[in-house]
Amino acid sequence: MNGEKVMDKLDDYIDSNVNRFVEDLKRLCRQPSISAQNKGVKECAELLKEMMSEVGIDVKVVPVKNGNPVVFGELKSGKAKQTLGFYNHYDVQPPEPLELWDSPPFKAEIRNGKIYARGVSDNKGNIVARLEAVRAWLDIFGELPVNLKFFIEGEEEIGSPHLEFFVKNNMNLLKADGYVWEGDGVDQQGRPSITLGAKGILYVEFRAKCAKRDIHSSNAPLVPNPAWRLVWLLSMLKGPDEKIKIPGWYDEVIPPTETEIRLLKEAPFNEKASKEELGLKEYLLGLTGVEAQKALRFSPTCNIAGFNAGYSGPGAKTVLPSEAIAKVDFRLVEAQKPDVLFVKLKKYLEENGFGDIELVSLGGYEPAKTPPDNPFAVRIIETAEKVYGTKPVVWPTTAGTSPIYVIRNWMGIPVASGGGVGYPGSKVHAPNENIRIKDYVNSVKYVASLIGSYKTS
């Protein structure tokens, strides 16, 4: 049977089982799994195990010391030599504020062709779409042309604090030829989005302390003010040119390739609408077009995320604070390492008279990318064009951060994200999170087609 006939059978099966697939997704969405509040997490892992077993996947719930369990599934396929991996997370964000939901966040209500539920887009819809694609293959053909592994964690929404430990201790278990990450969706024009990388991050906190208690500000000529200490410190981190001043900060940076720049040029970018939405007349340094996208996705950043000191209530209070705290996040690009940069930052402070400032690391991720011409990336891209009938938007990397480095960097396995259930109106992390049923169905077809792409490999 040729590839077209295979996909025709799969598409017919999927179209005939949409109602069943929707009910399966509602079943998972109705189970709360709020990692930040430790609500329903273990119950969701067990439910996911049950649902995966029903499809025919060999699955186990793996305990994680002091953390939420990992759900790991595997489906071996006859003579297949290649293995396709899927990474997802079953935990969700807290649904508050509840009063802004038009229906209860864990009811999974359908309205106007959309499913509304906390986690339906991020990330349960992608999980179930992948399971349904496997169900379709097994029900029609009895066997898959590729081995599958499902790596589903329960702590992504709280920063994946135990992910590194789990991966370090389970590399043989997780080994595959390529991993599809959570799953991008479609843009406003219905074009599928493919993402091949993510920036890293180093998040730090500066703590300055002077007097043992807050005092009257009339003592300012004699008593040092920790807020001023931090202001002077922060002014040394970055200049008006947006360049980070810490020596050696850019030493490991690898600039984007010609192919990656070409992808930026091909990608849609509604610059005018973006500025209007943010109420901006222009971006920093007057950047525009491809140069703006290049800065967004390929430049290290230094951002003051928070500053707290003294009195900030209504009216006046003449106080000299005893302590001040500033939080700063540094976004990292290929091939910067957060632990190496933390040492450079600490040395920089000490050499410039700020050794008394307490520097605390609040965590970090390495950046990671898969080259656009990598065979796995090409497979992901070509499958998207085939299923959606239009050329996908391919992003070499995101401006944000995701822990793909544990698979891409540590294990040398290509990683890409695509074929997901989301769309620009999904309201991820917000009240009334939703997906469109048509996007959910297309996601099932995408995964089924991706599996089918191994049939002649």
Would you kindly provide a written description of the structure presented here, covering whatever features stand out?
- The model has no long low-confidence stretch (mean pLDDT 96).
- The chain has helices at 3-16, 18-29, 41-55, 120-141, 163-168, 171-174, 226-235, 258-266, 271-278, 289-298, 338-351, 375-388, 405-411, 437-452; strands at residues 58-62, 70-75, 83-89, 109-111, 114-116, 147-153, 178-180, 193-195, 197-198, 200-209, 215-216, 301-309, 319-320, 323-332, 358-365, 368-369, 393-395, 415-416, 434-436.
- The protein is globular.
- It is of the alpha+beta class and 457 residues long.
- Helices cover 35% and strands 20% of the residues.
- A six-stranded mixed beta sheet has the order 1-2-6-3-7-18, covered by helices on one side.
- The two termini are 15 Å apart.
Gyration radius (Cα, Å) is 24 Å
Number of E-state strands: 19
Assign the CATH superfamily of the largest domain: Zn peptidases
Structural class: alpha+beta
SSE diagram, text form:
Elements: H1 3-16, H2 18-29, H3 41-55, E1 58-62, E2 70-75, E3 83-89, E4 109-111, E5 114-116, H4 120-141, E6 147-153, H5 163-168, H6 171-174, E7 178-180, E8 193-195, E9 197-198, E10 200-209, E11 215-216, H7 226-235, H8 258-266, H9 271-278, H10 289-298, E12 301-309, E13 319-320, E14 323-332, H11 338-351, E15 358-365, E16 368-369, H12 375-388, E17 393-395, H13 405-411, E18 415-416, E19 434-436, H14 437-452
Parallel strand pairs: 3-6, 3-7, 7-18, 8-17
Antiparallel strand pairs: 1-2, 2-6, 4-5, 5-19, 9-16, 10-14, 10-15, 11-13, 12-14
Helix pairs in contact: 1-4, 1-14, 2-4, 4-14, 12-14
